[in-house]
Amino acid sequence: MGMNMTKKILKEHLVKGRLRAGEEAAVRVDQVLTQDATGTMAYLQFEAMGIDRVQCLAVSYVDHNMLQTGFENPDDHRYLQSAAAKFGAYFSRPGNGICHQVHLERFGVPGAIQLGSDSHTPTGGGLGALAMGAGGLDVAVAMGGGPYYITVPRVVGVKLVGELRPWVAAKDIILEMLRRLSVKGGVGKIFEYFGPGVESLSVPERATITNMGAELGATTSLFPSDSVTKRFLKAQGRAGQYRSLKPSKSASYDEEIEIDLDALEPLVAKPHSPDNVVPVREVEGLRADQVCVGSCTNSSYYDLTIVAEVLKGKTVAPNLNMTVSPGSKQVYEMAARDGAIAAMIAAGARILESACGPCIGMGQAPPSGGVSVRTFNRNFVGRSGTADAQVYLASPETAAATALRGAITDPRSLGEKPAVKTPRKFLLNDNLILPPADPESAAKVEIVRGPNIKPVPLKGSMPDELAGEVLLKVGDNISTDHILPAGSKILPLRSNIPAISEYVFTRVDESFPARAREKGGGFVVGGENYGQGSSREHAALAPSYLGLKAVLVKSFARIHFNNLINFGILPLTFAKADDYEKIEQGDSLEILSVPSCLAAGDLIEVKNRTKGAAVRARLALTGRQRAILKAGGLLPYTKAGGK
After folding, report:
1. Which entry of 30, 36, 63, 76 is annotated as an active-site residue?
2. Are the beta carbons of 216 and 183 closer than 8 angstroms?
3. Interior/surface letters 248-260, b for 16+ CB within 10 angstroms, e for the rest
4. Which residues of the chain have pLDDT under 50?
């Protein structure tokens, strides 16, 4: 049988292991990217490893912590710029744009393996790269030349047939995937798109789909590198980096899904989950208070231009506010030069800087109880900055129609859709990307550290016994936003673990940090898909700092599972899901002979001293992961020579 694209790329990059689904394999990483909310800690960890220079193409972006209400964010930006110069990375200055949009434009390469300290790194799959999100420590190891270890996923072939009808967008394709499969339907899987419908989608449209594939829980998503890819790279002045990459004619997949693009209609994800998807017509007429266009999902030149065409000569409804965030300086400047920005300003839209902004709660919070329609990728409770806001996720077309009418609107009611063409040549100006310094110059660079930048906290080796109280019991689909929120108050503390640990689980229980300190740490018990959402390793690092010893749940999201291991927290799953009911918050748990458990098989006993009973838990780890936990985490394991 011929190979699919995923297997072709993995085979080219295989360092260790076998490409069998469910087994661990190590792969060589070609490119890494970081952003300022996760990158400061990643570079602090890289420093702690004692390596002088990055060993692959690395780009440090500034796009998250752009709201400078204090010294913390600009201090982090200065640190990142000096660290990039010192260690040989590119530095994308504030204002150059969102990491995924810029990387797609200026760095992404078909067939490469790309690792990023952001869960939406799979955006690069729109260009034919195998791009995966990971914790910052995994990225730091890759920067140092280490391989990335993955549990080889099952590959799901998604066959696209037909062609999207007017006003139906690429966003509606990924919303349809979420409607069918849910936010945990992609765990342990890579989605590979193929079929005749692929040819009708531009690279930015493909990137919208691969970007939001992260919401499926997938390892990544991937499109072919074909004539469409070639045109995009040529338009970006990078024709020489093109390579053809398609599945073999006889390629097989572990599963197959078919989507008829002709049959799709405009969709929307209702509060408070990206998989709560219905046709727009079912909620049409619901009054909206805010419309936000942008994010790494929908901030391309096409996205802004179609919004501008809809708004041209009209005025945003008086009952709502509208914001637009261009995805990159390239997008912003082109839209300004061709009049799209002027058209949106004239209509009443507020143009924000090229950054993540409202998507991660960095300003533009909706009013109390307000309805906000956003072209973003997540609508978890409180993520917008307003605890009781009702956030809907939609395409730019639906968002623009809603902005005009003042209520959620099916864009098909606007009549004929304006024509928007993909540019034959994009505006090329990389003046806000600083290239790596040469080794001689780098040696003279002094790294600048502000007072908010603290050293990476390290744990000792795993103790013989783990005992403590169940500090918190939670349900299904707990996201990293629940564990450690984003937003303008908390994000600036990402380089200060003692300070940011004061916010662990406060969105669920404000008393959690104080109780964790008082009790000397303990356990957390949860349901299905624990740790979904952002790749933020701080959702493991800060709880580890508070003494969290183990997490016992029904199932984990991929990146968070790895992050728990990286920071020395035991990730356990119930052998029997029903045993979840046998443990309550406040119960006292105990695990004996932990080193023996790590050296032995998959099943261990967790004693409930409060109830005088025990449950069986599964410790499904590779030998390497067991060694990392025994050492107290990935950083001490790596420094000791582990690979």
Report:
1. 63
2. yes
3. eeebebeeebebe
4. none
